[in-house]
Amino acid sequence: xxxxxxxxxxxxxxxxxxxxxxxxxxxxxxxxxxxxxxxxxxxxxxxxxxxxxxxxxxxxxxxxxxxxxxxxxxxxxxxxxxxxxxxxxxxxxxxxxxxxxxxxxxxxxxxxxxxxxxxxxxxxxxxxxxxxxxxxxxxxxxxxxxxxxxxxxxxxxxxxxxxxxxxxxxxxxxxxxxxxxxxxxxxxxxxxxxxxxxxxxxxxxxxxxxxxxxxxxxxxxxxxxxxxxxxxxxxxxxxxxxxxxxxxxxxxxxxxxxxxxxxxxxxxxxxxxxxxxxxxxxxxxxxxxxxxxxxxxxxxxxxxxxxxxxxxxxxxxxxxxx
Length: 322
Hints:
mainly beta; Neuraminidase; 4-stranded antiparallel beta sheet; 2% helix; 49% strand
C-alpha cells in the first residue's frame, strides 16, 4: 500500500482528530487548535458544527445520534514550517471534560468534568459499547515540573454516571473494542505500548495479577521510538493504531503481531475511522499538516455500536447492510 492509494479530502484544518464517518463521503472531526467540531463534505468543504473551546480531541456517535466529545482542556500551539503541533498547557486550563453536541443545532452540553471529587485532566478518546455506555481515556497532563496520571473511565451518555475503571495508566490515548465486545484496547502514547483489558461487564475489567501494572495484558510494544495516538479496529479484530514520529497507521493483530505499517507522510498522524459503502475506506487525520486523507483499505473496518442517520437520505452505510 503506497501513497497512490491516498486521496486528500480536505486541507487547511487546524489539527484534526477524532474522525467519524457520517455517510455519503462526509466526515465529522474535531479541530483541536480551532476548538471546534467540524463537518467535512466529500468536496473538501468544511463547516463548523459546534464551538467547544478548550481542546476537543476524541469524537464518537452515541445511541441518540448525538456527537460526544473528549476535551483535553486546551493547550498552546507551535506553528513550524509545514507543521502545527501542541506544546504547553493552555494558560486558562482548568481541567478537561466530556461534551454532548447536537449535530443538527450545534447545541453543546457538558456532561462530565470530574469523576467523584476528582477533576478530569485531559479526556482524549472514547468508544461506545452496544448497551449505550462509553469508555474514555484521560491522557493526564504534563505541567512544567510534574505530570498528572492518566486513567480509563466508563460513563453513561445521559450524564448520570461516571466511574474509574483503571488508574493509573501512563498517557492512555486511543481506545477501542474487539468485535465481540469482550476486550478493550488502549494505546499508551509515551511508552509505545498497546494494552488489552478483558471486560467482565459494562465498566468492569477482569484484572490480571502482578506484574501487570494495572490489570491489563500487554499486546504489543512498538519497536524503536514510536509514540501511539488514537486507534480503530477492523472487522477481523486487528487494531489499527495512528503512529506518531514514524507517521503511519500500524496494524496489529489481537495476538500482538505487527502485520504492516502504512505510511501517511505526516509524523503527527492522529486518528482514523472506516467508511464507504463497504467500510473499506480509512479516513485518516493528519494533525501536523492539517489534512484529512482517504486510503483504500484491504479489510473492512468494524461496524461501530451506533451510526448516524444517513446524510442526504439512504446513505452508503445503509447500503452496506444489504
